[in-house]
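Re: beginner question about structure tokens

> Can someone show what the tokenized structure looks like for a real chain? I only ever see the sequence side.

Sure, here's an example I had lying around. Input first:
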Amino acid sequence: MLQATMKLSLLLTKGAVEMPKLYFVTDLDRTIIHSKHPDYYCVESIGQKEITYMTSSSYEKLQELLLNQQLIFVPCTMRSLSQTLRIQFLRDYHLPFLICTNGAQIYVNGQLDLEWEKHMRLMINEDMIQREFEVIQQLGIDYERLDLTEGFYLSMKFSDDEAAKNGWLRLKEELQTSNEIMLVGRKVFIMDQRINKERALSYLIERFNWQHIVTSGDSEVDEQFTKIGRTILPGHACFKHDHAKVTTANGILATEEILDYLSSELESLM
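And the corresponding structure tokens:
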């Protein structure tokens, strides 16, 4: 009897320790958070300037999910670390994992993954990136801002989507480069094709043996990594996958459906 009780206690303890985790690997901008919605709940600001928003309902659902010990929330974003941590709920969450700068950098428990960093630095041609930076400055393109993001790639911010498209077309015609020139909303990125979210996610899956994964994203840079695991896409995503669930709502209202789907996936693990 004592032996059986001890065995049951061990199983319960083991079960508590080894409860399956669900890794929610998701893009942020235009997937979970959205700009230009001042009537909604602000989740990011710079000084007094509000930047991104969620509906109050979505924000409350996300807060509940982040308290669930079975869920591991993994941002997978083109933002840098500092840009990502401007988002209030991510600062509070103390991210176990973060894929940022479009997969060029990975943080594990707040620390830069040096093995991945070294691997990615060996890929890029820093001299070529610097030359492209200087050439773009001479082209007379009407952009708001040109940045060298963490030394990995160039990003250009424009006043609106139409200006970004015009700038993108100019660059495609006039910039001599082997790097990819990508248009994402009102931004244009010039980067090595090997810098991508899919490679970074695959590295984490292999290194930490992730089993249960849900992915979500909306733009061209999300298309490949969202083929991994179970997928929920916002209705406004610029791509679709045969296996993916797609929200009926678009824009900021799609986030709530994404989080509801995530809740149902968590329940299925129990």
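Each token stands for a local structural state, so reading them left to right follows the chain. Confidence is low (pLDDT under 50) at residues 1-16.
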